[in-house]
Specification:
By secondary structure, the protein is mainly α. Helices cover about 65% and strands about 5% of the residues. The longest helix has 19 residues.
Length: about 220
Amino acid sequence: MEKKLDSISARVDTSSSSSDSVEDELELSAVRHRPEALELLEAQTRFSRKELQILYRGFKSECPSGVVNEDTFKEIYSQFFPQGDASSYAHFLFDAFDTDQNGSVSFEDFVMGLSILLRGTIHEKLNWAFNLYDINKDGYITKEEMLDIIKSIYDMMGKCTYPMLREETPRQHVEIFFQKMDKNRDGVVTIDEFIDCCQNDENIMKSMQLFENVI
């Protein structure tokens, strides 16, 4: 994700004069969706005002209307993984960023999620990851939901990354994870079980970290 943030930042001239700040503020009212004031976002996230300005310009260049729909999100995200099919994972990721489930991601949605992923505590990141895996947002992760996410990650990384991957590997991966996480064997994983298992199992934490670059 840091590479993705860098790619957004690289498109922006970070040495702009103070007049650019004024232009940024004025342009907030020019888009169809007006984001919250940068001061408020600065208080709600772990980004500085300057970082928010850079992120806003990058977001605005890709999404002039101020919001991004799922199709556009998939198109942008697929550019980072040309070796595989990122459409399924981008769908799940879009749903995780779309916190109010209105079918679009605003600049606020984007930076709030990005702040957690890049600078959040372990607990905050695990909460966010649970929300990603909880596809139907019912407060539980089923084995099929976990399998859908893991398969979409393997699909996105492509055969170049996993040339010897057997078709059953994602399911085997999920079986191991789920057996460790579902402590009371009721067929679902709660957020408490998910966080407790991830924090106390070194192998699972390593596996989670291996996939950080795709978030």
